[in-house]
Every structure is written in C-alpha cells, then in structure tokens.
Amino acid sequence: MSQVDKRIGFFGAGQMCEALAKGFISAGVAKPDLMTATDISEERRNVLSGMGIKTTTSNTEVAQNCDVLFIAVKPNVVGAVLQEVTPFLSPKTLIVSIAAGITLKSLQDGAGGHGRVIRVMPNVATLVGAAAAGMSMGPGCDAEDENTVKQLFDSVGLIHKVDEKLLDAVTGLSGSGPAYIFLMIEGLADGGVRAGLPRDVATSLAAQTVFGASKMVLDTEKHPGVLKDTVCSPGGTTIAGVHSLEKNGVRAAMMDAVVAAAGRATELSKL
Predict the structure, then answer these.
(1) What are the residues whose beta carbons fall under 8 Å from the beta carbon of 207, sequence distance 6 or more?
(2) Residues 189-243: pLDDT tens digits?
C-alpha cells in the first residue's frame, strides 16, 4: 500500500485515534514522525508518543503543522475545537471528522466556511484493523481528498463513499452492527452449550464461524444467499436450522434492528 505524503494531525488521542494511527503505521501508509496528536490527558498522550507520534496540548499547533486534521473528540466539544483552530487553517487543509452526528454543514460553519471537510462514520472494529466505514464529502473536497481518506481507511478495514443523507443508514448497519453480531455469536455459542459443548469451545467456534462466513462473502463477492444455498443440502441439517431461523423471524429482526438504529441516529442528529 502506497504512502500518503501528508502530515496527519489528531484532535483527541482516545482509543479510536490510537487504532487509526496504529493501523496507518502498520500498513505503511503514514509515518509516525509525520503525525501529531493533541489531548488534555497525559496518559493518552503517552500512549501516542510511545508509537513515535509527536504529542502536544495545543490544538493550534496541530492545525498549523498538519495537512489532514482528524476530529476525534466528543461531539459536544467539536464546535469549540473548530472555533479555536479556524484562524490557522490553510485553503489546502483537509478536515476529517469521526465525531458522531456532526453534519458537514456544522463542520463547515464551525470552520468559518472551510469547505474541505469529510465526515466519516467508522465502527468499533477499527480497534482491530477491521473497520467498516462510510464517508461523505464536503463541497470543497476534490478527488485527491477522497483518495487520501480512502487510502487511510482502507489500511484499517474498508470504507465506502455515500451521500450524507445515507450516513444514518451506515450508522444503523455497520456502526451499530458489531453489537448485533456479538449478540449473534453469543446466541450461537449458547446453542453449542445447549447441545453439549464446553462454553469456551462453543464461543471460539461461533466467533470463527462468523469470521469465516464473512470472509467468504468479501473474498468471493457472491451473494450471501448463493453461499447459503451451497451449505444447505436437501433434507440436511443446515436447511433444518435455516428453517428454524426463518420461522422465528431472524431475518426480519436484523432488518428491523438496522432501521431502528438508523432512525435513532436521525433523531439524535436533530437534538
């Protein structure tokens, strides 16, 4: 993977910042000596400095010395951070926000009309280098900006560009989705225990089964229904299990979960 020849800054050095920075460095898309992170917590700064990243308590220092600025603070302080650093932005500065619920318009207005803003919705799997993310572009962004963010996030998983109006759907699916899958893994493991397996064996098999099935979908690019049919022999064990799932409305429950979470994301963005 080729290197992003830009200086990268982080406002906020929490777990998501750590995961992104670690992924960028491990994949070779960014060098630690070209990264700077700011945080009020000395403990969090020490974590990042331990990775070879420069740390500071000055937001303006990061804004002045970086080309790509990641907003990785809590949503309620995004406005204050933008107000502080806006005088130090250059026309070429790219702002990338991973703060939930902060719209492109809010980012642009908060940055004094600066249009080179991108909103990204990552998920918790970023922490293990397996992110599923969506991004939306601000009015001042160009193809280079898009490629920069795509290259960075592809190093920690995958990312798709969508219209901003669809980011709530991304939230409902991949943003909240890990919780649905954790619940599914727990249910599969409980079933294994009910069938006689030790708890640790059942949990390991359940998690690996989900991982393997996901990898087959991504690697083969076949429709999940097609892959499902390859496992379901006529009159066999798998079709009996699938029948039970369908009878209990599992497919509809998953669809309802995504729609409910997306709807809640829309509600929260209007508060």
Answers:
(1) 185
(2) 999 999 999 999 999 999 999 999 999 999 999 999 999 999 999 999 999 999 9
Angle between helices 250-269 and 237-247 (to 10 degrees): 50
Helices and strands, number each (H, E), in the chain:
12, 8
pLDDT digits (tens, 9 = 90+) for 65-99: 999 999 999 999 999 999 999 999 999 999 999 99
The label of the residue with tokens 């998501």 reads 16
φ, ψ at 55 (rounded to 5°): -125, 155
Other Cβ atoms within 10 Å of 223 Cβ, number: 10
What residue has token string 């670690």?
22
Tokens 């293990």 sit on residue: 128
Say if CB 4 and CB 23 are below 8 A apart: no
Instruction: State how far the Cα of 42 lies from the Cα of 46, in Å rounded to an integer.
Output: 6
Taking the C-alpha atoms of residue 55 and residue 61, their distance in angstroms, rounded to an integer, is: 10
CB 121 within 8 A of CB 158: no
What 3-state class would DSSP assign to 10?
strand
Q: Side by side, which strands form the sheet with 54-56?
A: 54-56, 35-38, 8-11, 68-71, 94-97, 117-121, 131-137, 157-161
Beta strand ranges found along the chain (DSSP E): 8-11, 35-38, 54-56, 68-71, 94-97, 117-121, 131-137, 157-161
Total-model pTM: 0.92
